[in-house]
Amino acid sequence: MPLQLPVFVRRSFRHRSTRVTSEGLQFLIFTLAIGIAAINTGNNLFYLPLAMMLSLILISGIVAEYCLRRLEFHRHLPDLIMVNHPVTATLVVKNRKSSLPSFSLVILDVSDGQDLDRGITLHHLPAGASRLVSYPMLARRRGRLHLEGIRVATEFPFGLFMKKALYQVEGTVIVYPEITPLSETLLRGLTSAGQEQALHRRGHGSDLYNLRLYHAGDDSRNIHWPTTARTSQLTVRETEAEEQRRATIRLQTTVPASYDAVFEQAVSVAASLVQHLSYRGYLIRLIVGSSCSEFSQGDAHLYDLLRMLALCERCAPTGEIDASDHHQAESSEGEGGTEIVVQSWGGTAGVQPDHPTILINGQPVIGGVHGV
Amino acid sequence: MAYSQALRLTSILLAAVSFIGLTLGSGLPAWLAVFTGVALIVVLIRHVAAGPIVHLAPHGLFSPAGWNLLVIIGFLGFWVDMFLVSGELLPAGIHFLMILMVIKLFNLRQRRDYLHLYAISLVAILASGSLTTDLWYLPIFLLYLVAGVWTLILFQITKGFGDESASPTSAPSVQVDLPGRVTPQLFWLANGLALVCFGMTVAIFFTIPRLSAGFYHKGFGENIRTSGFSETVNLGAIGPIKRDPSVVMRIEVTRQEPHSLDRLYVRGLAFDQYDGKSWTNRLGYRRNLNEENPGTFLIRGQQGSAGSRLGDTIQQNIILESLDTAVLFAAPFVERISGKFPAVQSDLAGSVYLPFPSASRIEYSVVSRSNPLLPADLGSDAPLYPESFARHFLHLPYRSERISRLSEDITRSQAGPYEKAHAIQTYLTRNYQYSLDAPLAGLDRPLEEFLFIRKTGYCEHYATAMVIMLRMVGIPARLVTGFLATEWNEYGNYYVVRQQDAHAWVEVNLPHSGWIMMDPTPPSNEVVRNESPAWQALGRILDSVKLQWNRFFVQYSAADQLAVVRELKAGGKSVGHRTLDSLVTILSPFTRLLGMIPDQLFRGSVQPQAAILGGTALFLIILLWLGMKGIKGRIRVDKKATLEEQRIVELYKQMLARLADNGIAKAAGTTPWEFVHVTRMTWGEANSAVASITELYCKARFGGILLTDEELQLAKDRLTQLTSMEKP
Predict the structure, then answer these.
(1) CATH number of this structure's domain B376-481+504-518, picked from the four choices 3.10.620.30, 3.40.50.1820, 3.50.50.60, 3.30.420.10
(2) pLDDT in tens, B293-320
(3) Element counts in chain A: helices (H) and strands (E)
(4) N or C: which terminus of chain B carries fewer CB neighbours within 10 A?
(5) Do A40 and B153 count as a contact with CB atoms less than 8 A apart?
(6) Based on the number of CB atoms within 10 Å of its own CB, is A7 exposed (0-12), middle (13-18) or buried (19 or more)?
(7) A124 → closest Cβ in B160, B169, B177
(8) Of A45, A117, A158, which is closest to B170 when you measure between CB atoms?
(9) Tens digit of pLDDT for each residue in B535-592?
């Protein structure tokens, strides 16, 4: 029957690990040497330093355990994290011990079983005290970033061993795709497509709708000075109502595994397009694989779409999925608005580009991602 | 004190403690001790003079290459020392170690230099342990332990300060809450850890299995030189050592009432032949004794005689220092001897020996039985002795008419041999003076000079005179050398025997009683030790502590551990009692000191004990006062002097001052939040800043919440904002 440790012992030491430091290794070698000398000579005054060194080793373990015990962590992650955009996370550490302080605490995030060193060191945390620490964080992948817990390590008191304890402080945050500058070609393509889609009625836009005489209360910034000079009458310009422009962005998700990097670029381009058009006041609909959003605008909608892009996954090409993508493409037609398709794979017969291909209303944009 | 400064100080102290250990252990020649000591003092003064602006890399005397060159020169010096000067590895190694220590002390630039210094000091403290078994090692070891704990803690805490390469993190470090100074909390924690460490050290020390499987066993120090315990002893040989207070043995008498004997004769050698100037033992042929049980040896001839002899038995535990003689001392006459000896020998004169002198302190137990004077020997005539017996114990170096006439005169009126011997003993005791200033060694007939001219001498002269006088009247006698133990240590319940207690006396053979002991030496009027009683008492306490140190630490062995294991196996009830007994024994000097106070009070001689107790009490009061001061300081720190609290209180005071300048003064009875309300009524613009600072102040002052640096900065900004406002 295997040896069963008491429950409280297993519970207490379940998340503990210990590593010998370089100084600790030297210390252990000295201890061994003194032990051999003591056995060899039988001199009790060698056993005394040996006992001292062994007691230092024992005390190291006990004090380090007390340092790591009864700590409390609260982590705050920012709401918006994008790939390759540094953000600041904050952590509140509290020592819940009534009388014993903790020393030399090194704090690490744990994600996917890996320790992520944030370079946080708390040299002294008095009993009952709490400390707020902030640290930079950089996400490398889009999707769900799941932080399983916090590993806290200490070499206190003697620096011989580094003892680590794991605290379960779970936290999940969505990492949005990276937003990159769009290329000039693509922007021009979008502008021309937008003009075709523009509704001829007055509104807050950038394109000229009409010129009329100035009335009291008109914004002086809208005065059209060339016409005013030419006609000697104060003339203001009215712009087209751009908010009524619609765009459908479709991201192809049926991509072979070998095109994963291109797919990620495509996701990033799609996210950049979503943000760009959203800021321009477009009503945007996003179709990612089989998922499809409503036409809408505003920040909340923007974040919903970015979230969709953050969580979308590449699908291996099969006949069904291809048909589904095709069906979506067809079904989106006739609903109005510019259709922008971001492709990262041209199909089994097509030419395989190194970069995603962008189609605006069925027309490919040459060099559409060069600015990405 | 800043961490880096404290680390440097404790590192120097660690090195200093190990250096003192080596110096006390006589491991260093005078020049090296002075050189290292001066170096330590210089480094310490430099450290104190530099104050807080000490860095890990101060400007040194030499470049790193220069220091390396010095190390190489030192290493070459080590080889020269080993082959040409010291001639041994250990002394040369110790000398090199001290040179390295001095080099490192002046070259503490990087963290690895500190590590090197710690390694050197560790080896030095080990070396001092190999050079001594004296009690001073204990306080040195304790100091080393305390300094070591402090040093390791500070070394760990300073890891990563200004040495980024040493940081365990590869990412840019976020150092939070770095006090940078030794706080009272850390002070008490470090000292507490040192105390716990000491307790665990003692526990581990007693439980580590003792294995001695080595090839290098060495004695400790040099043997004590004795006189009077060789095959031939010149008359007057004992005289020179009669002023030497070195302790040669300690004797616990277990089968007697404590201190029922005011003096204890400790027999060494017996001599049968006197040639006029020196004594020789012609019966010195040694034979191995039978081992009754493992480690217990029985003297041949004493076997089975216990029932027929009526003398008192004396059981003694003797701790004998390492002497230059193989003689095992004990009260006369030895029946049984036990100890960790491979073999024990005895000669025909009843002396007991080891096969060779012990290089270290030894402990053994002896059962002795003295020969009582039987009534049959009173008034009876001297019998005729066998020729072989008479050749040894009636032998005279020459025929001296004067001595013969004197002997006849003294014993003429006495009937039996005992009466005659007693008469001679009485004559010598009453008519001669004791003096250590009796240079009779160079004379042709020293005995005549003593008996008829100078009439002063010491034990050897008296004993020799009595033996010769007894032999002249036909009574067999022999001279015995040993020690006369008179110094009773009431704190440890044992006799302390010193070199100056070396003694010579006479054994007289009576027909029925056998050999009985007689001592013709009168009591000495010379005061050998003129210390005050308080010092003597303190000396006895220290000696008792030394004995416990020796017994429980130096001599602790696998046999003791086995005994404990056996006790545990047997049922374990008595283990607790044994442990308690051991503790009581260790603390016995102090408990006895306390116990003796009432007796001494009634006898009116309380002065020595009172002086010691007074000193101890004063020491304890000072310790208590220091402790209370520390605790009070801590309470003060805990209650109101945390740094964050001080800062917010200061900011709040500045805010009140600023508001008072603008005509809004806070009344004594107004609470902080009431005052915020007042401010809002009178100066609405300032309300936001005032409320914010007040909230933080209340959190820290009354809520017991430690403020973060961000919160403190916020309060500071609010105060700046308030200062920039003008009240309309």
Answers:
(1) 3.10.620.30
(2) 888 898 865 544 444 456 778 889 998 8
(3) 8, 20
(4) C
(5) no
(6) exposed
(7) B177
(8) A117
(9) 778 888 888 888 888 778 887 877 778 877 877 777 655 556 666 666 666 666 666 6
